[in-house]
Design goal:
It contains 3 helices and 10 strands. The protein is of the alpha+beta class. It folds into 2 domains: 60 residues, no CATH class; 70 residues, Sandwich (Tumour Suppressor Smad4), CATH 2.60.200. The strands form 4 sheets. Strands 8-7-9-10 form a 4-stranded mixed beta sheet, with no helix packed on it. A two-stranded antiparallel sheet has the order 1-2. Strands 3-4 form a two-stranded antiparallel sheet.
């Protein structure tokens, strides 16, 4: 099966491989190939789960990422705690159709989802409001209401939003108007 080339190095003869395959029964080759494919798939799955980089040509599996090990070894607090410089993960409702975010004021950057089941969203300092913003001095107790109206389209369902100021002292502005 092994031959030597002109330099004395061992070379594998392709004819020997073909002879070996032809002499080996199919019930041995099939399971052998299956075991090989399953082993490769398991190594790829495990490497991806550990966060390694995988290259198929040239074949290479990267080194383990630095840190505390695989994600399964970390505690739930470590997985949910955002790393420095990364945006934290939040869970949003599955039926979210929009959101209201503060772009000015004391609680700038805060956002609240608006879901498909709501038909009106009350905003103000009142704790009974859907969106309560108690720290902002520019928000009234009952500042404004957003009315949500579903619309039926040809391809999908849409929504219209209407804003109604409820007599706030500073007024309500949409896109600066």
């Amino acid at each position: 099966m092994w031959q030597r080339d002109q330099y004395g190095n061992h070379t594998h003869s392709m004819n020997a491989v073909i002879d070996f395959v032809e002499r080996t029964p199919y019930y041995v080759i099939g399971p052998t190939i299956l075991v090989f494919v399953v082993a490769i798939a398991f190594m790829v799955w495990k490497s991806l789960r550990e966060g390694r980089e995988i290259s198929f040509w040239p074949p290479k599996i990267g080194s383990r990422p630095s840190g505390s090990g695989s994600a399964s070894e970390s505690t739930p607090e470590e997985r949910t705690k955002p790393k420095e410089g990364l945006i934290p993960r939040v869970k949003l409702p599955a039926d979210q159709i929009g959101y209201l975010s503060l772009i000015a004021g004391g609680d700038i950057g805060s956002a609240w989802p608006i879901t498909a089941g709501l038909r009106e969203v009350r905003v103000g300092k009142d704790p009974g409001s859907h969106i309560c913003v108690p720290e902002d001095p520019d928000i009234s107790v009952a500042h404004f209401v957003i009315y949500v109206k579903p619309t039926e389209g040809l391809q999908h369902r849409g929504y219209q939003f209407f804003v109604h100021d409820t007599g706030s002292k500073n007024g309500t502005f949409v896109n600066g108007k």
